[in-house]
Design goal:
Layout lengths: L2 H22 L2 H27 L10 H16 L7 H15 L13 H24 L6 H26 L15 H21 L8 H29 L14 H23 L1
Length: 281
């Protein structure tokens, strides 16, 4: 199947499904969409660990799903009031302790050389995607969370889609800007930013309460999300380049793996969250 067609079909099917979950199941601070985010984080953790595994770095298979799920689940439980504020930091410390203490029980001296790389891999997987995904979940704690989550996802998807379309159609003479992702182009970056700007402007016109009725905030959030989404995509490209993999996985037609689909979200969510929190004060 043509890559653009497969990508289009995936967007047409998955995006409305995500929006339906957000709008039709907002209960308990969006339990449904946040549970899905935690699942994506677990699958993404396996894919991130595979980046290291294909390069010969040792991993701890039983620990990977824990590292992927722990922080997103902790943040959600904090949001609904089941855990006290600051529980995420405690979870980071506890998980880091588990990662380090696990090496105390290495029994074969021949395995000592694997301790440092195994610790490095586990800490990396804890941060990416787990810690970054917590910020998407944190969006459900903000005022008007349903339209905010929809607008945020629309901005990221518009950025990704228009960057891909513009880069594919008109970006051949401006690509190879960055060696880690040689197919990315200046035209593609501009198309992505334009797509996000269109969504942010439309949101301000149709649902101004999302941005507290402030056009300047809509513009700022839109631009920041666009840039962060681009960098999120490039960061994952760098990881794939290092591991010599084309895609992080194969679960999503036209896109590859889960990380290939949420890489922009992972970097854009913290930016959106902190801008919105700072503007609400």
């Amino acid at each position: 199947m043509n890559a653009l067609l497969a990508r289009t079909i995936t967007v047409v099917v998955l995006v409305p499904a995500l929006f339906a979950i957000v709008l039709l199941a907002p209960w308990l601070h969006h339990l449904a969409i946040n549970a899905l985010a935690a699942v994506f984080s677990v699958v993404g953790a396996y894919e991130a660990a595979n980046f290291f595994g294909v390069r010969g770095f040792p991993t701890t298979p039983w620990l990977i799903p824990i590292l992927g799920a722990a922080l997103p689940v902790t943040v959600y439980l904090e949001i609904v009031g089941f855990l006290a504020s600051g529980a995420v930091l405690a979870a980071v410390v506890a998980l880091a302790g588990v990662i380090l203490l696990r090496e105390v029980f290495v029994r074969d001296e021949r395995d000592f050389a694997e301790i440092l790389p195994r610790v490095a891999v586990s800490l990396a997987v804890l941060l990416y995607p787990g810690l970054f995904m917590t910020y998407f979940i944190r969006l459900s704690s903000l005022p008007d969370s349903s339209p905010l989550i929809i607008v945020f996802l629309l901005m990221v998807f518009a950025n990704d889609t228009l960057a891909y379309v513009a880069g594919t159609l008109w970006g051949r003479t401006t690509n190879r800007v960055l060696p880690v992702s040689p197919n990315k182009s200046v035209v593609g970056f501009a198309g992505g930013i334009l797509g996000t700007a269109i969504v942010a402007s439309g949101a301000w016109l149709l649902a101004p309460e999302v941005f507290f009725h402030r056009l300047a905030l809509a513009f700022s959030v839109g631009l920041a999300v666009a840039v962060a989404a681009i960098f999120g995509d490039l960061v994952e490209s760098a990881l794939k380049r290092s591991s010599e993999l084309k895609d992080s996985g194969f679960l999503i037609p036209g896109r590859g793996g889960v990380l290939d689909s949420i890489d922009s979200i992972l970097f854009a969510a913290p930016v959106c969250f902190y801008l919105m929190v700072g503007s609400a004060v």
